[in-house]
Write a structure and sequence with these properties.
Layout lengths: L1 H16 L5 E17 L14 E17 L4 E13 L12 E12 L2 E10 L9 E11 L3 E15 L2 E16 L5 E10 L4 E12 L2 E10 L11 E12 L2 E11 L27 H4 E13 L4 E14 L7 E15 L2 E11 L9 E10 L1
Antiparallel strand pairs: 1-2, 1-18, 2-3, 3-4, 4-5, 5-6, 6-7, 7-8, 8-9, 9-10, 10-11, 11-12, 12-13, 13-14, 14-15, 15-16, 16-17, 17-18
């Protein structure tokens, strides 16, 4: 199937490029270097260190984006990742023989307001449901001033032997972004998984502003066996408001998961220790443990043009899916400071503490530093 997708998109690109002998190249990218110190990250948590109560870790990466546009309008987009990995003092996840790989690489052919794309594509729905995934894909995009629509087919798994296909996992989906007057917007996304564990996942997100208050609300659904943490049909949702209070921007959020709804923990905030969202997180997903309710407050103070400081306060209560366990209460408190060193370069520091006695033997703490560059 991968060959079919690439062949169809490749033939379209070749036909468009036949009238053009030159392409315009654009280069951009980002890089970072990080240091983390983590304490009381015991075997209860999926994050290392597994056999020690504290350790420092170092990691870095560099990513290059390359875009090439032909005179006929067809294009190629790719991102290359270099030397991405972590050194924790005992093992190095960087492999010197395999430290360069392609994050995504696809081609596109615009035809008026419609564009056909094919190749290895990054799949984004919403951070709450599914975000920053990769798949061999063929998709059709439509866009005008207010409407953006993507209809896609993703081949997320394919095993072949002796000409027989033993394990296919196909995703058929769509993503609609609709703008309205007054700055309001609607996002509707859905994915149907076609394999031995067929199922559907979908979400509806609304965003806009009332006076000076920015609002985002989302409700999402996961059918059993598709992204869900249990064999039930799961639901989840949240409401977020950001309010300016003098020099402070105050973000507040409440949310819930039920019946196995599984948050995309690596992309959905605003947590600093809980979930797997920040560089100092404990690396676990409370929505996989049980039904959850949470409330979070994140005030951010713009100290100067270059310096901003924020604090995180979150409370989560979890009703475990495992039988015989009582409800579990989790708390976290933390802070982030970010300083713009120069255009395209910033230094940030994070500190966090989580009260997780109901889930683990110790309460973890962590400190992180990150130097980020974009170009």
């Amino acid at each position: 199937m991968k060959k079919v997708i690439l062949a169809v998109a490749g033939l379209a690109l070749v036909g468009t490029m036949a009238t053009s002998a030159m392409a315009e190249f654009k280069f951009s990218g980002d890089a970072r270097a990080r240091m983390n110190y983590k304490s009381n990250f015991d075997d209860t948590w999926t994050a290392y260190p597994a056999d020690d109560d504290s350790a420092d870790t170092w990691n870095s990466r560099t990513r290059f984006k390359i875009e090439a546009d032909t005179k006929g309008g067809a294009y190629v987009k790719t991102r290359v990742r270099l030397a991405e990995g972590t050194w924790d003092g005992t093992s190095n996840t960087r492999n010197k023989n395999n430290n360069i790989y392609t994050d995504y690489a696809y081609i596109g052919v615009p035809m008026g307001m419609v564009t056909v794309e094919g190749g290895l594509i990054n799949r984004d729905v919403t951070p709450f449901l599914y975000f920053d995934g990769r798949a061999d894909s063929l998709q059709v995009k439509y866009k005008n001033d207010k409407t953006g629509l993507v209809v896609f087919f993703d081949k997320t798994e394919e095993n072949e032997a002796d000409g027989f296909d033993f394990s296919d996992q196909d995703w058929f989906g769509f993503l609609l972004n609709q703008g309205f007057e007054g700055g309001w917007g609607l996002t509707v996304g859905g994915i149907y998984q076609d394999n031995s564990e067929a199922g559907f996942a979908g979400t509806v997100q609304v965003s806009g502003a009332v006076a000076d208050v920015a609002l985002v609300g989302e409700i999402a659904y996961q059918e059993e066996n598709f992204l869900s943490a249990t064999n039930d049909d799961g639901w989840g949702g949240y409401l977020q408001a950001t309010v300016p209070v003098g020099p402070v921007s105050l973000l507040g959020m409440v949310g819930f998961t039920a019946d196995g709804y599984n948050i995309d923990e690596a992309d959905f905030g605003p947590f600093i220790m809980l979930q797997d969202y920040s560089q100092v997180s404990i690396g676990t997903d409370f929505s996989e443990v049980g039904e959850a309710f949470w409330a979070a407050i994140v005030p951010t103070f713009q100290v100067s043009e270059k310096l901003s400081i924020s604090a995180q306060f979150s409370y989560v209560t979890v009703d475990p899916y495992a039988a015989g366990l009582d409800d579990q209460d989790l708390f976290e408190v933390g802070g982030t400071a970010k300083y713009a060193i120069t255009d395209g370069a910033s230094l940030s520091a994070q500190i966090g503490y989580a009260d997780v006695d109901d889930l683990g033997d110790e309460n973890p703490t962590a400190v992180g530093l990150s130097l980020d560059v974009s170009f």
